[in-house]
């Protein structure tokens, strides 16, 4: 098995290295596939000269521009205009009323390739250096903003990979308290990551899959987080079985039989939930689905094949200095899963299950109200945590030109109807001016300037009115695009995607849970609990994003993507708990006893897994993009809530209260009520002379791995 994975690694390495070159962060990759602004972006690339780079040259001096400043600005503008072919005629410099700012819009034509556009932005910035002292010269506009965004994306992959690996390594060392053991799961995660990157590259080549830096970043976090969780569960169970079996092979076989079904169901829910994103209209979201699913499947494959092989080969000594010693006298399952902390939690839940359930539910509901304080939609220039030059230029323009928009809307229409379209655009409420741009291939380009600020409520109304007005011109086939129109389409599409994808995710997760647990009530309970965790996490985001972190808005992707990740990942811990409860019930344990016993025996390892998963998503919060920070915060907080509150207290107390009804309508429900939960927890049961808190642990061979990680 190890040899097979070495071959896989050698074959995958060349292709995994090409994935970064196959990713694309063009604006069209983050747009809805059927939106008006997406069609406009596609048509722009077909016009003569290919793509254009729309820039704003901004010269600004506090207190007012001097004659030398104006002369330097004219010279710099002429220098740039002489170097590049411009679309829409020569540059026109517009002074502000306060005399402090000069704004010069430019559209550099003949730059169809992304690399050429990026290089042009850097060259323009170099040409604008050497201004008089005190004169601030910045390059803004959509082209400069896209370049600054690309630079941020380029820095994400390596930083994220290193940061995630470091966090996981530290947590594994603290969990295992071994100088060697932590290296094994981390190495296996590395194998899984390389394999996943190669598979995704193959999907790009075969199916033209849309892969963005956001997709690959989240895939990396998923592989490290989910893969490490699976490793924690398997290693804990393997260590437990080493106390009962002399041969590591036999112990590993028993461990795989025990925790395998739960791990498979866990990975299945994550993969199924992510694949539901294929139904999304947003290109970046639909592409994220298969990319994330590939990462989870590769992590699962490595953890149930390569990890067991390495551990068996290394034997007991890999656990040094806490080496598990085989006890030939032991015939029952070990009691290593019981910990004082979860014993105390179990006793508390057994005494006051209803009070704990009501209090916890009220707490989650109260936190969810914080979502009312979530900031509005995130504007394009607010997507960075650190302000780049393009955003500074746009902020200067907004202050100096409050009466009009500095960011044009782009209208594409049939050339034989362009005059009619131009008249209709000028007559539309909210439009300040219209300029004609390139013509070619039967299409013409118009730059439409709105009176309101970019991405303001007034400009959005202008876009809607413009689309309505132009759609009445028969044969013109107009398309309204540009950054502001793209943001408007993103907001609408994300709302539509939520209505489509969220029900699919819930249905997919429920089907897998019903198949695993042979029940309807238990799966519904788990799904409701994890949805409550998501709502509370979003509410905490509302209390943190604006008031604490100072974010100007919430990225439109966050509600949908965080829901998919939290439901798919958060339900994992409920699976491990419920699967142990079911196995205890099949061995004859009443429901309240099996519930509390499952909490005691799985509590530590599941808590460790939850902390690791939350920590990997916390790494996203170090990235210089608001989307990454908000995503990392919501998912990490949701996982922690699910780990420490929902799974530990609420699901457990619900199990104690529901008794056999939690397994309705399965076989455990149909058993005699007197032996399926009819007694309160802690009372003697037939065949046992001790109460629930004192009886020996009776674990069947096929149970979820117990906690031996501490």
| Envelope shape | elongated
| Helical percentage | 55-70%
Mean pLDDT reading: 84
As a whole number of angstroms, the C-alpha radius of gyration is 30 Å
Low-confidence stretches are 333-338, 674-710
SSE topology string: HHHEHEEHEHHHHHHHHEHEEHEHHHHHH
Number of strands: 8
Head-to-tail CA distance between termini? 30 Å
Largest sheet: 4 strands, antiparallel
- Tally of contiguous helical segments: 21
Strand content: 5-15%
Strand order in space, largest sheet: 2-3-1-4
Structural class given helices, strands, pairing? alpha+beta
Question: Can you put this structure into words, describing what you see?
Answer:
The protein is an alpha+beta fold. Helices cover 60% and strands 7% of the residues. It contains 21 helices and 8 strands. A 4-stranded antiparallel β-sheet has the order 2-3-1-4. A 4-stranded antiparallel β-sheet has the order 6-7-5-8, with helices on both faces. A hairpin with a 5-residue loop joins β2 and β3 (101-108). α11 crosses α19 (591-618), α11 (340-351) packs across α20 and α17 runs antiparallel to α18 (558-586). The longest helix is centred in the N-terminal third of the chain and has 35 residues, at 142-176. The chain is elongated and about 95 Å long. The model is unreliable at 333-338 and 674-710 (pLDDT under 50).
